[in-house]
Structures are given as structure tokens and as C-alpha cells.
Amino acid sequence: MKNTDYFKNKRITVVGLARSGLACANLLFKLGAEVSVTDNHANEAIRQTLIQLKTKDIKFELGRHSHDFIRGRDLIITSPGVPYNAQPLIWAREFNIPVISEIEFSWMLCPGKVIAVTGSNGKTTVTTLIGKVLEVVGKKVFVCGNTGKPFAGEVEKIEDGDFVSLEVSSFQLETIDKFKPEVAVILNFSQNHLDRHKDMQEYLDVKKRIFMNQDGDNYLVLNYQDAVVKGLAKESSSKVVYFQEEQGLNPNQAAVLSVASIFGIPLDTCLDVFRQFRGVEHRLELVAEINNIDFINDSKSTTVEATLWALKMLKRPVVLIAGGRDKNLDYSPISDLLRQKAKAVVLIGEAKHKIRQALSKFSPILDAVSMDEAVSLAFNMAGPGDCILLSPMCASFDMFSDYEERGIVFKRIIADLAKAKS
Fold first, then answer.
1. Within 13 A of 195's CA, how many CA atoms are on the CB side?
2. CATH of the domain at 90
3. CB 55 within 8 A of CB 32
4. What does the pLDDT look like over 408-420, one tens digit per residue?
5. pTM above 0.90, yes or no
6. Cα 219 to Cα 210: distance, rounded to the nearest angstrom
7. What is the DSSP track for 271-321?
8. Is 20 helix (H, G, I), strand (E, B) or coil?
9. Which of 283, 325, 299 shows the shortest CA–CA distance to 123?
10. Which residue range is the domain that position 65 belongs to?
11. Same domain for 297 and 190
């Protein structure tokens, strides 16, 4: 790792004790920092995470944030789920303490080449495919970020000449400083996270930070068919490479091809990877077929555009399970495609009333109070040759700890249903 002495003997607080925060805290302690962790949650999941701290010398507080965990610190490192206006970050700014994100911290230590992928939709798939393409040509590559493995948990293993395929969200980009990927990829731009960003312009401004430190030695890969994304070329000092959907290639695959071309990886190699790729968990994942009804887990769909993509990809009539915690999105753009492709909609979670209003021209729409009930209602509405699609368009935090738990619960229910019908 690089710059390890920078963190030695520094007093550092990590805000947020999820996977990224845990990885940061453990690595900081190993680097010789005096580490504290603060998290305003005190649920069972957080307490289980707390057990994974590698030493009792890391101070922690749960269920609150206090001045004592911020004042006098040399640095604050924030986890992706912590909003910019969270109280600890406000205090840090008042005390003139630098605040950086987990990806900034990890990038400072990383000796490898970083390919950073952002966008409103498709990040996990593209990040995963880039990793697979690099592996096929013999590169040592680490796929991390929002895909499940925190960058901070992998960076100790990374050596000079290795690659990092890194999924980066707008939340993580809010608090970068010098983060400078060799290749930055912006897949698309559409409404998302408007519960956190005040408007679309602020959301775009945060996304643009992915290339703000790049220079003429770096590459910026942009979607030529997305007018907003294409227009970012004029604001960049990077070498710009465009991608676009073509016959036989979807936009995600086209983006991967453009990244591969930067490193001289042949087209045929990429196409072989695409043919063998079976997708990522919780993204258009075929879970089971029961009574000739397909069950599709698309729990990672937390935007309207992601669910639109899912509906377009499926050939069978759909019974859609949607809903969760609203991100201040407009759900009406899905109405026309629903009328063409869906037989029914089952709604769950806090956003169900808002979604029902937005889909007022569609019928039938049913409400469920749990995932179990949602699956039962959907199964009753579906017939042979149909598919039941969990594609929520919403965050998961009203009913689940994250989209992964939501998908796992859905799959468990389907497994139980399959046993009952066998």
C-alpha cells in the first residue's frame, strides 16, 4: 500500500458502521491510527458488525452521535450511507476537520490502476463485467465498491500493476478530495436519490466529481446516447471515449467494450465474456420456475429507469412487485410500459400510496403488508407462461437492511413456495 505513514498516530473517527465503516476502522487501526467509530443506529445488525472490530482499542458509540467523537480529530472518514448534512459531518466542518469518503481513503493507499464506474443504473453489472474481461486476459483485478466488497477491505491485497474495478455512488463522490481514477465511466443520468440531493442539478454536480481531478493522462468514458452525459466531455480535461448501444450489444456491454479498448483488449475476448455472463445476484436473477411461472429477483432495482430496463428485457407477461422507501422519484414514466407488459402490480412499503397515485391509469394494483403476502398475491394473479418480477423502484430501508436482504428474503419465500408445490 502507498501513503501508509500518513495515517499513523492520527486521531480518526469513522462515521457509520456498516461494511465500509467496519473495513475502514480495522484497516486504520492496523495502520497505527487512534480510531473511533460513531453510528446513530443501535440495531441487531449494527451490533453484529461491531463484533467484527478486530480490537477492543477502537472506541465506539451506537445509537447517537456526540461531540466527543468529532472534536479534536485529525480526520473524519464517512461511510456511503451517511448524508452530507448528518450531524457529525456538520460538526466536523464547524471544527475545520477534513472529511473524506471511504473510497478517498482507500484510493490514497491503493497502488493499482482504478477504473471507477458511476451512473444512475447499471453500475454493478458494468463493474462486474470489466473485472471479468480483465481477468480473462490475465490481469489481477479486484471488483469492489457497492458490489459488496468495500474498497477498504481489499486494498491491503492490491499491488502495483493490479486493477481495481470500482463501483462508485453519488454518496461516495460527495466527499472525495483528490480521488483520481485512471479511467472514469459515467453510464447514464436519470432521476435518483432525490431524497438526498435537493434537485437533479445537484445530483449531476456530484456525479461529475468522478472526473474532477483527472488530467490528460486519464480517460473518461461517456454514454454518447445520453445527452446529459455526452455533454460532460466539454467540462473534462481527460481523454474522452464514447460508447453507444449497437446491434447485438446493450449499453452496459458497449461501456465495457470502450473500457476494454483503452487497455487493448480484443473485441472477441469481450464477446466471449458477455456470452458466458449469467448476471449478478439481485439483478434480473432467475430464481425459480414454478407451474411454468418464472420468478425474477431484481431487488437491486431502486430507480424507475432500472425497472423500465427490466420490463423491456422480459418477454413474458409480468406481475410486478414494487415499492419500498421513496427517493423522491416520479413513478409515472413506467405507466405506458406497464400497460403493455404487466398483468398486475403488487405494492409494498412506504411508497405504495405514492406509486398507486402515479399509476392511476393501470389496473389491477394490490397492496401487501409483507414480502410474503406480496408473493402470495402475485402468484394468485399469475398464470402459466407469466413471470413474477420483484423490481421495487425504491430503496429498501423501510422493511429491510439493504437491497440484498430484500432479495434474499424474496428468494427464501420462493424456495418455500417451490417445496410446497413439489
1. 14
2. 3.40.50.720
3. no
4. 999 999 999 999 9
5. no
6. 11
7. HHHHHH----TTSSEEEEEETTEEEEE-TT--SHHHHHHHHHH--S-EEEE
8. helix
9. 283
10. 10-97
11. no
The secondary structure of residue 196, as a DSSP letter, is T
Direct distance between the N- and C-terminal alpha carbons of the chain, in angstroms, rounded to an integer = 53
Query: What phi, psi does 397 have (nearest 5°)?
Result: -75, -5
Residue 86's alpha-carbon distances to 39, 170, 306, in angstroms, are 11, 16, 28
> What are the C-alpha distances in Å from 288 to residues 76, 160, 370, 417, 418?
45, 43, 20, 10, 8
Q: Say whether both 216 and 248 belong to one domain.
A: yes
Dihedral sign from CA coordinates of 262, 263, 268, 269: negative
Q: Do 109 and 92 sit in the same domain of this protein? A: no
Strands (E), 89-131: 99-101, 113-118
90 and 108 share one domain: no
Pick left, alpha or beta for residue 198 (phi over 0 → left; psi -120 to 50 → alpha; otherwise beta): alpha
CA 315 vs CA 27, 29, 334, 337, 393: distances in Å: 47, 51, 17, 13, 20
pLDDT at 72: 95
Domain boundary among 256, 276, 296: 276
Whether 27 and 152 have beta carbons less than 8 Å apart is answered as yes
* Number of domains into which the chain is organized: 3
Whether residue 84 is found in the same domain as residue 131: no
What are the contacts of 282-286 at 24+ separation with CB within 8 A? 282/403, 282/404, 282/407, 283/124, 283/125, 284/310, 284/313, 285/407
**Residue 147 confidence class, pLDDT cut points 50, 70, 90:** low
Assess whether 236 and 298 both reside in one domain: no
Q: Cα(22)–Cα(152) distance, rounded to whole angstroms?
A: 9
Percent of the chain with pLDDT over 90: 76
Length, in residues, of the chain: 422
Whether residue 78 is found in the same domain as residue 161: no
If asked whether residues 135 and 61 sit together in one domain, one would say no
| 211 part of a folded domain | yes
Of the candidates 339, 330, 331, the one whose C-alpha atom is nearest the C-alpha of residue 361 is 339
Tell how far CA 171 is from the center of its chain. 10
Within a domain: residue 4?
no
pLDDT tens sequence across 71-102: 999 999 998 878 888 999 999 999 999 999 99
**Domain end among 64, 97, 130:** 97
Locate 240 and state its grid cell: 474522452
**Residue 117, beta-bridge partner list:** 167, 185
How far apart, in Å, are the Cα atoms of 140 and each of 117, 133, 216? 18, 11, 25
Sign for the CA dihedral angle at 52, 54, 60, 65 comes to negative
